[in-house]
Structures are given as structure tokens and as C-alpha cells.
Design goal:
The protein is 14% helix and 33% strand. The protein has four helices and 18 strands. Strands 1, 3, 9, 11, 12, 14, 17 and 18 form an eight-stranded mixed sheet that branches. β11 and β12 form a beta hairpin. The longest helix has 17 residues.
């Protein structure tokens, strides 16, 4: 078969060798060959669905757990036996046609074709199982952990447990959905809305209905595996942006009210009251301003195929508002 025809066949099957003259294995693991090239990761077939539109200035949440992160790599069912055979034999032919020595792929031929341990790529079981391969999380391809899935492609019969660590499951999918959760910006309302005044409280609040639960679904087509995460806002943390200030309450944590709002809107006549959520600046910002950082915490739970589910680490998303603070003067509030 001509090299051009081989390349066309490989494009139809999803990927091309890393470079001519070398042979790359299927999966992210590296294999040194006589051609001198190394493997390239296949793209996962996992799909992510985020319902609704994304508001301007929205962004991904940051996990609050220092000892947790979504999977950097995993194993998933990828090839039917006949496709796996076509893909590999086309690559082997290209390798040899561009000058690669036969011994450079001898081990692979022995493993997948000659019965050590697989015979003829298991094509006689084409409808009875799948070839599983290692894939890398595209958002973590530079993370050292993405190279931890080093197992060669392996066969798993339909309905059989893969029996290997890091095999994809609903919890894996939940972690991927968590990583792709995008929430709206934390735009708080302030009173006074112009310049705040030294030693006078600045009221801070989020109106009812401003923030609603956000759901993300990750699934692996053709397997029945899926997981949906749901993020719900639970509290607001205020950082005044200067040490010359007091948070109200002192912890800076403003809890969400029963109606979904946070804090309390300012109204005329409340100037001498302490707001349930706010800050008190103790020094003027001069000609500049202080960056009031409002960080909303979202609790995250998940449910998946087969009645699976649970909780995942909470996530946060912050927005900074510039607050100019003036010295005390007569102010009608």
C-alpha cells in the first residue's frame, strides 16, 4: 500500500504516527524504538455537557481541597478488535516503508498478533469486547501524573471488570465534570455604591436568585457510563483588600440565607446598624481604592450510572471590586 493511502487510512481511524521513520504506541506511554520516536496520547472519547449559556466573566471553580485533583490519566474502552488491527497494521506498514527495521516492532507484533498473549488482535471476538487504552486528561497533559498510565492496550470482554487501577468509572467522570464546572462572577452589591467612608460600615449583599445551582454531565458514549455534578452556592467570604479594615462578621464569612440571598440590602435608616455582611474601612484609600475580594463557595455533589454518587471537594470563585474610601464627612445615608 502506498504511504499516502496508509496515511489516509490512519486519518480515518483517528490519529497519525508521531513522526515518519518511527513507531508510536497507542496511548500516552512512551516507547523507544529504532526509529527514535515516542508515543502520542489518544484523545479521550468522554464528552462534557454544560447546560445553558455562560455569562460574561464566568470562570472555572478552584477546588478547596489541597489533597484532591481530578484524574490526570485513565484507561477507557477505545477500539473494536477489527479497527485495532487495521490501525496497527497500517502503522506497521508505514513504519517499514519509511525505513524502520522489522525488529523495531517485533515485540508489538508478538503481543497483539502472534499469540503472546493475543492472537490476531482478538478479531474473532470483535463483538465480545473492546481494547482499552490509556488516555490523558487534556487539561492536565503537562502534569507529571498524566504519565502514570503506562499499561499497554489490553482486552476486556463485555461486562467484565477491567481489574486495573485507574480504569474509567462514574467517579472518574464526576472528577472530570468537577474540573469543567464554570460559575458566574461573584458581583456583589455595595452600599454606599460610590465612595465608602472611614469607620462607617459598607453593606455587601447578593440578591435572591442571583446564583443558581450549576450542573455538568460527563459521559462515555456507548458504555452507559455517566456522571452529573451539581454545584450549589453556600457562603460568601469577604477580604477587604487592606489590613486597615474590619470584616463584618469578623470571620469574613457571610452565610447564605434561606431564600438564597446573602447578606441584607441597605435601606435608609440603617446607617448606624451593623450589616450582617460587609466591611468597615479604618483608613482612607487616598487617590486610589482598595480591592474588595468576594469569594463564593460552591458545595459540589454528584450522581452517576448504577446509583452511584457522593460529594466532591467544594469549589470557589472570586471577583474583586474596587472600593474608594474617603475620610469622614457629613453624609446623608
Amino acid at each position: 500500500m502506498e504511504v499516502t493511502a496508509l496515511a489516509t487510512a490512519l486519518v480515518g481511524l483517528g490519529t497519525l504516527p508521531a513522526e515518519a521513520g518511527g513507531f508510536d504506541t497507542i496511548g500516552p506511554q512512551e516507547r523507544k524504538t529504532s526509529g527514535g520516536s515516542s508515543g502520542r496520547a489518544l484523545e479521550s472519547r468522554v464528552t462534557i455537557k454544560v447546560p445553558g449559556s455562560t455569562a460574561k466573566d464566568s470562570g472555572p471553580i478552584t477546588s478547596t481541597a489541597v489533597d484532591w485533583e481530578p484524574p490526570a490519566c485513565w484507561y477507557e474502552p477505545y477500539w473494536k478488535a477489527e479497527d485495532f488491527k487495521t490501525f496497527n497494521e497500517a502503522k506497521w506498514s508505514m513504519y517499514e516503508s519509511t525505513g524502520g527495521a522489522p525488529e523495531g516492532i517485533a515485540d508489538l507484533k508478538a503481543r497483539y498478533k502472534e499469540g503472546h498473549p493475543y492472537k490476531d488482535f482478538n478479531v474473532d471476538k470483535n463483538d465480545e469486547g473492546m481494547w482499552w487504552v490509556a488516555v490523558t486528561n487534556p487539561k492536565m497533559k503537562d502534569d507529571p501524573a498524566s504519565r502514570n498510565c503506562k499499561r499497554e492496550p489490553f482486552w476486556v470482554d463485555n461486562g467484565e471488570n477491567p481489574g486495573v487501577p485507574q480504569a474509567i468509572d462514574t467517579e472518574t467522570l464526576a472528577g472530570l465534570a468537577h474540573q469543567r464546572t464554570v460559575v458566574p462572577p461573584t458581583k456583589v452589591t455595595l452600599a454606599p455604591n460610590g465612595k465608602s467612608t472611614v469607620n462607617a460600615p459598607t453593606w455587601v449583599w447578593l440578591d435572591k436568585g442571583t446564583f443558581k445551582p450549576v450542573s455538568v454531565t460527563a459521559s462515555l458514549p456507548g458504555t452507559g457510563l455517566w456522571a452529573t455534578t451539581t454545584a450549589k452556592p453556600v457562603s460568601l467570604h469577604l477580604d477587604p483588600g487592606t489590613e486597615d479594615a474590619e470584616s463584618l462578621p469578623a470571620s469574613g464569612e457571610c452565610v447564605i440565607n434561606d431564600d438564597g440571598s446573602i447578606g441584607e440590602p441597605y435601606a435608609r435608616g440603617k446607617a448606624e446598624l451593623t450589616p450582617p455582611c460587609g466591611v468597615r474601612y479604618l483608613r482612607s484609600s487616598g487617590d486610589g481604592s482598595y480591592g474588595l475580594k468576594a469569594t463564593l463557595t460552591w458545595d459540589i455533589s454528584w450522581e452517576g450510572a448504577g446509583g452511584t454518587g457522593g460529594d466532591l471537594p467544594s469549589g470557589t470563585f472570586a471577583t474583586t471590586t474596587d472600593v474608594a474610601v474617603q475620610e469622614y464627612q457629613a453624609v446623608n445615608r
